[in-house]
Amino acid sequence: MPNSKDLIIISASCGKNLELSKKFQEKSNELKFNSEILDLTTFDVPLFNPRIHKKENIPVEIIEIKEKLFATEKWIICAPEYNGSIPPILSNLIAWLSVSGDDFRNLFNGQPIAIATFSGGVGLELLTSLRIQLVHLGSQVLGRQLLSSFSKPVDIKTIEDILQRLSQMKKLKV
């Protein structure tokens, strides 16, 4: 099973998706993953603006997040659906990462990632949009995903299955 820094669970909200992230972490601990939650709402990162921000002035938080992501074998992203798509805090992180150095593509290229949501609405648009973006960046997005809402509670068996499948994936060397 997993070891070292195996799993990072990225939470793109401080509400239900943070709770979902904690459920993933609890189950990952049972399965002997060395995991941590990266709560994007705890970082004070400005909105990326290409007119203002250049490669020379990357926020320290982005550099730290990037180093952490490079050092982690597998990722899970838990995010709510915003206006039928990806939440701004997650889009902003990806935008910052994309200008944070010449190795941006290596960060995502071949990276095993699972995606999950707890959304007030359907949530399917988020999962579809996020999958399209991550695949475009070269990531290996797990086929199984978790979609939950107030009318569709989180299924712990789905969390366990996602973790088991993710544990079998390796970062592709490209």
How does this model look, in words?
This protein is of the alpha/beta class and 174 residues long. The chain is built from six helices and six strands; from the N terminus they run βαβαβααβαββα. Helix 1 crosses helix 6 (156-167). The protein is globular and about 45 Å long. 34% of the residues are buried. The mean pLDDT is 92. Strand 1 (7-11), helix 1 (16-30) and strand 2 form a beta-alpha-beta unit. Strands 1, 2, 3, 4, 5 and 6 form a six-stranded parallel β-sheet that branches. Residues 8-148 form the NADPH-dependent FMN reductase-like domain. This is Possible reductase. It holds the Pfam family FMN_red. It comes from Prochlorococcus marinus subsp. pastoris (strain CCMP1986 / NIES-2087 / MED4).
